[in-house]
Design brief:
The chain is of the alpha/beta class and 193 residues long. It is 37% helix and 18% strand. α5 links the parallel β5 (122-128) and β6 (155-161). The protein binds flavin mononucleotide. Flavin mononucleotide binds at residues 9, 11, 14-17, 83-87, 128-131, 134, 136, 162, 164-165, 167.
Amino acid sequence: MNIIAFLGSPRKDGNTELLMKEAIKGVEDSRFKVQVFNLCRMKISPCRNCGGCDETGVCITEDEMAQIYDVIRTADRIILASPIFFFGLSAQTKIMIDRCQAFWCEKYLLKKPIPEGQYGRKGLLLLVGGREKDAGVQCSEATAKAFFRTISVPEHKTLSFTGVDAKGAILEHPTALKEAFASGKELVMLKNR
Ligand SMILES: Cc1cc2nc3c(=O)[nH]c(=O)nc-3n(C[C@H](O)[C@H](O)[C@H](O)COP(=O)(O)O)c2cc1C
């Protein structure tokens, strides 16, 4: 099973990264490996809406997004982890998502289905926000859902934690790490379809 994870937090060893690492431990506990993409360290340009992918489903911008296009096609499980910034996903996460417009064209304009693979593609969304309560989770979740559905992830689980602000504060949360570990384990245990 191919499992990939996108880390969208620019804060090294921050709350999102700690949470994602715990989910990965859950996956690895079932003897699967995870390929991690640290979006903040990758050179990925924003979508220019140039129309270059409209008729082909292939993005014409040449950068490190090329690796991501390839791995998404063969991924069986996809973890997307982002902090909440201004009520939405981090810019680094959103840039990668916007570049998936090429998949959107392939799927919806060219009407070529993007296969889910033999295990049925599944997703896990991890969100961390500093504010106690706001619309940040709903806004981020809406964008992530559009991303997942575009790349043929028909089903995903969301794990979100609010009121977690200072670096490392997630470690003090009573259940977050355990929930992330369990969600990672569950992600690879899900039955095919
Ligand atoms: C630019 C910026 C914008 C933020 N906007 C929000 C927000 O709208 N809602 C919220 O709950 N937290 C917001 N936060 C707080 C972060 O979500 C919080 O600190 C989180 O724990 C960061 O995760 P990290 O350690 O993985 O970077 C913001 C932080 C930054 C730096």
